[in-house]
Each structure stands twice: as C-alpha cells, then as structure tokens.
Design a protein that fits this description.
By secondary structure, this protein is an alpha/beta fold. Helix content is about 40%, strand content about 15%. α2 crosses α3.
C-alpha cells in the first residue's frame, strides 16, 4: 500500500521566502544538493569562509544517520520511524535507507518549512509495501506531531524517533528536553531515540562561525555540549558506544580512523 503524503491546510498558505537564507536550504547546499537559492549559497559560503569544517560536519552527520537507520532496521527490527526536522531531500534520506533494507517500513517526516513540504510532495515516493507521509508542524508542538503521525504509525508498536540536527533550533534547553520527553513518552517499550546535533567544546572556530550565523537574521541554531546532548537520553538505554562525535559512532568496518567532528550523536532504547 502507498499512503498519500499528508499535506495539512496551513502549508498551502505559506510562501517560500527566497530573500533570506534558510537552514534547510543551506544544509542542502553543504550536503551537495541543488535545492537552494543564491541567498543560501551566499550564507553557506560566508560560513565556510570562517569555518570550512562545517561541510565535513554536515556530511559526517548524514553518514551517522545512515548507520543509525541501518542498525535500527537490520539489527533492532524497527519498521516505524518518526523523523522530525526532515530537511530537503538529499541522497539517503531516512525513507530511502530504511525502505531500501525493508520495503514495508513506515516513515513520517515532520518539518515546518514550505520548501521542504513542496519537495516532500514530489520526491518522497514510498516503497509499495510501506508508507512515507509528511506532516507540516513545528517541533515545539509535540502533541500535534503525535496526533498527526498516529494516522500513519501504530504507536502500540516500537518506533524510532529521529531528531537529526533539529534540537539546536529549540533555543531553550529545558523546552528541548521536554519535547524529547513528550515524544518518547508516547512510544512503547522497545522504541528508540536517535539524536545528533552540532556540539560546543570541540572547535572554537565552529562556535564563532555559529555565533555570527545566529546573529545574521537566519533562524538561530544553538550548539550544545556533549553532556547536554547526552542528557536528552536520560532514562533510556544507550546503545554502544554511547554519545560520541558522529564520525565515531559505529564507523563502517574497514573505514579509516575517523576524524572527530564537532557534532555529537547517539542512539538509545526505551526499556
Ligand atoms: C539542519 S536541517 C537538518 C535536516 C536533516 N534532519 C538532516 O539532519 O540532514 C534542519 C531542519 O529542521 C527544520 N526546522 C527548523 N526549525 C524547525 C521547527 N521549529 N519545527 C520543525 N522543523 C524545523 C528545517 O526546516 C530543516 O529542514
């Protein structure tokens, strides 16, 4: 069965603003995608002029996500995913990796950007047996996310919550923690939480570049320490090796010793 992509009302009235840079499009630019405007390219280049390492961070983060999804499907037997802060479709999105391994996998993406929604409508084709749906919602509204996602996902069954480079957009740490708690609280035992986020305390140049970006008028993104990121997993069982630089989370067998990048991530199971 192929479920229709969810396109709720509010998105129809939103316009894509190409006059200010946007996180999803800049991220897409750094990942080598084509879904961005000159204003995003300019902001992305201004950032890399100060801190070229952001491109390695973006790509290491994408590789972490792929290894997480692979673990979840192949080793943990998960076939339902709730991925909040989808981003623009680039190679190896959650649904491509998961449904490539298990076509029956069901995925719900959530984002609040109209351009992401427009692309989701066109590009998020589902495998026949599974489903890929999209919700236009804000991460700060977990109740709305859960209500809409329940149309596609069965919350009686283990589900993986994916929060990849989204919690930094929630500036208030306590609010970010309570969003994670609320979303995980709705999932049954045997569910998983995957988080990765840009981190503070590794590279001062990254922090300077991020501070300048946050003051540029773009939606701010808060870098957190590895300890703060680890605390998001409180009450859950971290899968080895715990919360580490994303490049060091279960690197592929035979890959050269990965460079530490200023982005931390982990995966944990709800008992
Ligand atoms: C840096 S991108 C990360 C994309 C993808 N998850 C990844 O890791 O490659 C951040 C995404 O979060 C979305 N986003 C930002 N603020 C949001 C909010 N308040 N609610 C929902 N999505 C948001 C952006 O539109 C963008 O798609």
């Amino acid at each position: 069965m192929t479920d229709p992509v969810t396109t709720p009302e509010p998105a129809k009235h939103q316009k894509i603003d190409t006059s200010v840079p946007h996180s999803a499009r800049i991220w897409n630019y750094w990942l080598g995608g084509k879904d961005n405007y000159p204003v995003d390219e300019e902001a992305g280049d201004a950032y890399t002029a100060v801190f070229p390492g952001i491109v390695t961070i973006a790509r290491s983060s994408r590789a972490f996500l792929r290894r997480n999804i692979t673990y979840l499907v192949s080793e943990a037997g998960i076939w339902q995913f709730l991925d909040v802060g989808t981003g623009l479709p680039t190679a190896q999105n959650t649904h491509e990796v998961a449904q490539g391994l298990a076509p029956e996998t069901r995925i719900v993406y959530v984002d609040n950007d109209p351009m992401v929604l427009a692309h989701a409508r066109v590009l998020l084709h589902s495998a026949h047996e599974g489903a890929t749906a999209y919700i236009d919602a804000d991460v700060t509204d977990p109740d709305r996310i859960l209500a809409a996602a329940a149309e596609t996902l069965d919350f009686e069954r283990p589900t993986a919550l994916i929060l990849s480079n989204i919690l930094g957009h929630v500036a208030d740490y306590d609010q970010a923690r309570s969003i994670v708690t609320r979303l995980m609280g709705a999932l049954p035992s045997g569910s998983y939480l995957s988080i990765n986020d840009g981190s503070r305390g590794i590279d001062p140049v990254f922090e300077q570049a991020q501070d300048a970006y946050n003051n540029s008028g773009a939606a701010p993104y808060i870098l957190r320490t590895a300890d703060e990121i680890t605390t998001f997993f409180d009450g859950l069982e971290l899968i080895e090796p715990g919360v580490v630089s994303v490049s060091q989370w279960r690197p592929e067998h035979g890959s050269p010793s990965p460079e530490v990048v200023a982005e931390h991530g982990g995966l944990a199971r709800k008992a």
